[in-house]
Design brief:
Order of helices and strands: EEEHEEEHEEH
Shape: globular
Structural class: alpha/beta
Strand content: 35-45%
Number of strands: 8
Oligomer: single chain
Distance between the termini: 13 Å
Number of helices: 3
Length: 154
């Protein structure tokens, strides 16, 4: 599972001209699902992302977490995070999970965020979405369970 996490002042996702989700200060998480991802990767990534301390304290140090700043979360599905650009000019997306698994893991990620105390605003899996954000810092991190988890799953 992969995520691009951006610290934002605000973010929103619009579908068919209507805002589907919007937040103030917090995290915009673009979430990609791989073909071998399970509940284990889903929970690990949610806990890791939501537990990051990347908001500045009174001394300008990144010591504060989402709860310290009353932050919010916006999650948008992003299969293109598994795009392979090694050959040619057109990315291949065969490394992404098939849509049924991708949607199931995306929905589970949303549920886990809520269980952890951060009910997320979100997009709709597979929809054509317009995402806007006011990046804060900017602080943008790439999280990949294949690189973060202690034990390889393959």
């Amino acid at each position: 599972m992969r995520a691009v996490l951006t610290r934002v002042k605000s973010a929103s996702v619009t579908i068919d001209g209507a805002v589907n989700g919007a937040i103030g200060q917090g995290f915009l998480i673009l979430l990609g699902v791989g073909p071998n991802d399970t509940e284990k990767e889903c929970r690990y990534l949610a806990e890791k992302a939501l537990g990051l301390r990347v908001f500045e304290d009174e001394n300008g140090k990144m010591n504060l977490g989402l709860s310290d700043v009353n932050g919010q979360v916006l999650v948008v599905s992003q299969f293109t995070l598994y795009g392979n650009c090694r050959k040619g000019r057109r990315p291949s997306f065969t490394d992404a999970a098939p849509p049924e698994l991708g949607n199931a893991m995306y929905e589970r990620f949303l549920e886990i965020c809520a269980e952890l105390g951060y009910p997320p605003q979100h997009g709709i899996f597979g929809a054509d979405m317009k995402v806007e954000s006011v990046n804060d810092g900017p602080v943008t991190l790439i999280l990949d369970t294949d690189q973060l988890m202690d034990t390889p799953r393959r």
